[in-house]
Write a structure and sequence with these properties.
Arc Repressor Mutant, subunit A, Rossmann fold, 13% strand, five-stranded parallel beta sheet, alpha/beta, WalR-like, 10 helices
Length: 222
């Protein structure tokens, strides 16, 4: 796969890439692979969103690769994508379902590599993003078009975003990614009953009845 990626058309100018991933072997492995590409000038890494945001401001990469299994992944996307200057973020290990990809798109990612993606897929995505292009599966493209149509058809103005706590916003992000309460508790390192209480409060604050409706609010604080 690496040899195949090496033979692909290179980016027009050398790229600086930043990798944010919690697993050391994962991020260092990606850095090693990407560092061998002829059109990658430099690669740096961080283990979480907070460290990554701070180091990105100094490193000034062309593209950030972000592992979406991190608890603060969507918030990290928002900070980077809407910062000054804005940073292009490619989401890694994204389940290729409508809900997951739309949540990433609303947060501000410019590309993604699914969980089943290969090194070749990663390099292809990077080089397209470097040219201002996007790559996605046909069914995901159709979902994005449907979402745009729904947004354009809204006649009434949206209500202002509810005032959620930082923890509640984290949980909303994880709900948008399709995680169940048990998975959210494990990801955030808190008790299951605490997650249930937060979810109850979130539904009340957003004035919705179902978890599936919560994801629609993730763009409100982008």
């Amino acid at each position: 796969m690496l040899a195949q990626a090496m033979n692909m058309p290179a980016a027009a100018s050398p790229l600086r890439i930043f990798v944010i991933a919690g697993i050391r072997l994962y991020r260092e492995g990606l850095a090693e692979i990407l560092g061998r590409l002829p059109d990658v000038a430099e690669v740096d890494t961080a283990e979480d969103g907070r460290e990554g945001v701070a180091r990105v401001r100094v490193f000034r990469p062309h593209i950030v690769l972000l592992d979406m299994s991190l608890a603060d992944s969507l918030e990290t996307v928002r900070v980077l994508a809407h910062g000054t200057p804005p940073t292009r973020v490619v989401a890694l290990a994204v389940p290729e379902t409508e809900g997951h990809v739309l949540a990433c798109a609303k947060a501000g990612v410019v590309g993604y590599v699914p969980r089943e993606g290969s090194v070749h897929d990663l390099v292809t995505t990077l080089r397209h993003v470097a040219k201002g292009e996007a790559v996605c599966a046909p069914h995901i493209a159709a979902s994005l078009f449907r979402q745009v149509a729904l947004l354009s058809d809204r006649a009434a103005p949206e209500r202002p975003p509810a005032r959620l706590t930082e923890r509640e916003r984290q949980i909303v992000d994880l709900i948008a990614l399709g995680l169940a309460n048990q998975e959210i508790a494990r990801r955030l390192g808190i008790e299951l009953c605490t997650v249930k209480n937060h979810v109850h409060n979130i539904l009340e604050k957003l004035n919705v009845r179902r978890r599936s409706e919560v994801a629609a609010f993730t763009h409100s604080w982008a």
